[in-house]
UniProtKB/TrEMBL annotation:
The protein's role, per its UniProt record: Involved in the maturation of [NiFe] hydrogenases. Required for nickel insertion into the metal center of the hydrogenase.
Similarity remark: Belongs to the HypA/HybF family.
Keywords associated with the record: Metal-binding, Nickel, Zinc
Superkingdom of origin: Bacteria
Protein's name according to its UniProt entry: Hydrogenase maturation factor HypA
Source organism per UniProt: Collibacillus ludicampi
The gene coding this protein: hypA
Keyword Cell membrane: no
């Protein structure tokens, strides 16, 4: 279960970012998770709840934004979101494509601070 090591890394990044932003408390971590990331959302949520115990993030929520697969169709010359990750075919014309534009994300993009913090929102460094 690599979700446990991912959750651990998220906590390390969030703690460091919160300290740098002088956040007294972190209420939530905001994460983009692509359908092709290889991460099982439920396992990550469970792992996160385990990993935050006894850390400065204890009690924080993990808010996950699901990112669907978006591909570029060479025939239509347009980008399209797929209703399902597979098969990778244009939903308009049916052409096969492997040109993935979105859907591989695993990105911690924001922290929500507790009340009274100098910085209520902090953006973590690119990882």
């Amino acid at each position: 279960m690599h979700e446990l090591s991912i959750a651990h890394s998220l906590v390390e990044i969030a703690v460091e970012t919160a300290e740098n932003a002088r956040m007294k408390r972190v209420k939530a971590l905001y994460l983009k998770l692509g359908a092709l990331s290889g991460v099982v959302k439920e396992a990550l949520e469970f792992s996160f709840d385990v990993v935050i115990q006894g850390t400065p993030l204890e009690g924080a929520r993990l808010v996950i934004e699901d990112v669907p697969v978006k591909v570029f169709c060479p025939d239509c010359q347009e980008a399209h979101k797929l209703p399902e990750p597979f098969p990778m075919r244009c939903p308009v014309c049916g052409t096969r494509t492997g040109q993935v534009l979105e859907g591989r994300e695993l990105e911690l993009y924001s922290l929500e601070g507790g009340e009274g913090d100098a910085a209520d929102d902090a953006k973590p460094p690119n990882c």
